[in-house]
């Protein structure tokens, strides 16, 4: 065995040189392969990272858009506390609008909305594209010029509001196809039609100005018969059949009637908590007053 491991000096130098050559070649190989692998891996990671980042940004943008509250066209005259807060209005701005509407006034433009509520320009720019006003506001009819010799129509010259057609109503400035059909639909909902001209104020979309123009041409000539309730004897179940009186208000009216030992006049209703004073003329159409109290 010893003879197998005995080498001459030249043999030992050759073996040593061969080992150095093998080690050098292996080192070069691993260096080249490692450098190439690291370069390829780094490049692949950058591409994947960019693709992944773009996908995350896209999903995040979609989530932001989906989380935004959806806004549909609406009439700004009927903004509630909740609706106003979702639109970004402050409590003061909402209160200004509600106080304005309590005066039975109507907003007919975005500019007027800002004047009443005092909202900022940026908020108005955001919400005003969704404003939806009645047809007669957005598509007003050209005004008809009357000569000074035209006199107001007398009762006999006016047409009966209970027989007029939607087409005839459209002759009034401010009454379009939608409004005229709405008036006829409202009339037909009541057996016998209108009781009085004042009921026009209950038609959605009609402003006091347009109501006055309608009354210049039309009036109720054939009022529907109605059995009026005695305000001083009617019970809750009877009062709730009157327009604008719900169960809570009917119960409040009966309670106040008992405390007062009967109502002296219809004006006493204005002192009842929650009574809609602006609707009293319509409510009076269904009531009469006799000084008789409940036993």
UniProtKB/TrEMBL annotation:
Cross-referenced Gene3D superfamilies: Photosystem II 12 kDa extrinsic protein
Sequence intervals crossing the membrane: none
InterPro entries: Endo/Exo/Phosphatase_dom_1 (IPR051675), RuvA_2-like (IPR010994)
PANTHER family found in the cross-reference section: ENDONUCLEASE/EXONUCLEASE/PHOSPHATASE FAMILY DOMAIN-CONTAINING PROTEIN 1 (PTHR21180), ENDONUCLEASE_EXONUCLEASE_PHOSPHATASE FAMILY DOMAIN-CONTAINING PROTEIN 1 (PTHR21180:SF32)
Protein name listed in UniProt: Helix-hairpin-helix domain-containing protein
